[in-house]
Each structure stands twice: as structure tokens, then as C-alpha cells.
Design a protein that fits this description.
The chain is an alpha+beta fold. Helices cover 17% and strands 44% of the residues.
């Protein structure tokens, strides 16, 4: 079974400062932006010129919470063709694995030995 790097998700406290850092200082470019006003968050995808791997910036601007978001890497995403077989394999290995999520299903989360989250998606 072969896995492909897809993206890493990072929660950021200041979207504009973060975009300036990655785009102006590291030469990445914004490839997609999604705004969810009802939930008060934005997602921005950045990539290099190859566009084979992305950084997903998650910015939560919900001021009602009263606490700043935890920043840093949220999870790494890998894509695999046979999602169900991959899910079964990881469960049989004894890893912490979420249930399959989404229609048809689309993904699940796997936890590595240090507690880092890895999102496995169909792809």
C-alpha cells in the first residue's frame, strides 16, 4: 500500500502575519482560500511551485471564545487509494484509529506513538 504526502494543517493566531512570513520570506504562494463566516474561521492553502504538497493554515477568528487558539501543527495528511484496507491494517496493528468519516468514507485519523495526529484520506 502506497501513501502520498498531501498537506500539513497548522493553526495560526494571525493569518496576515503568517501569510507574509510564508509567501514573502519563503516564496510559497496562496493556492486556495475558504472562508466560513458562520463558524468564524478561514482556511488558506499554500504551496511551492511544484504544488505537490501544501500547508493548510487554519485561522479561527471567533472572538466569543475568550481564549487564544492553540497554535502549531494540528495534523499531517496522507492520501491512499484503498482507504478501507488501510484503516483495517492500522486497527489490526493496534494503533489508535478513529472510525471512518464522511460519505463513502473519505478519511480517518491515526495517532502515532508520540500522540501526533495523521489524517488518512482517500486519494
Amino acid at each position: 500500500m502506497s501513501y502520498r504526502l498531501e498537506h500539513v494543517c497548522m493553526t495560526v493566531s494571525d493569518l496576515e502575519k503568517t501569510l507574509k512570513f510564508y509567501c514573502q520570506n519563503l516564496g510559497l504562494k496562496e493556492v486556495e482560500r475558504k472562508t466560513f463566516p458562520e463558524n468564524k474561521f478561514q482556511i488558506v492553502y499554500l504551496s511551492d511551485s511544484n504544488e505537490e504538497f501544501e500547508i493548510k493554515l487554519y485561522y479561527d477568528y471567533n472572538d466569543d471564545k475568550g481564549v487564544p487558539p492553540e497554535t502549531g501543527v494540528s495534523y499531517l495528511t496522507l492520501a491512499v487509494e484503498d482507504l478501507k484496507n488501510s484503516h483495517t491494517k492500522h486497527k489490526e496493528c493496534g494503533y489508535e484509529v478513529s472510525e471512518l468519516q464522511g460519505e463513502n468514507p473519505l478519511s480517518y485519523f491515526l495517532t502515532d506513538p508520540d500522540g501526533n495526529k495523521i489524517k488518512i484520506i482517500r486519494g
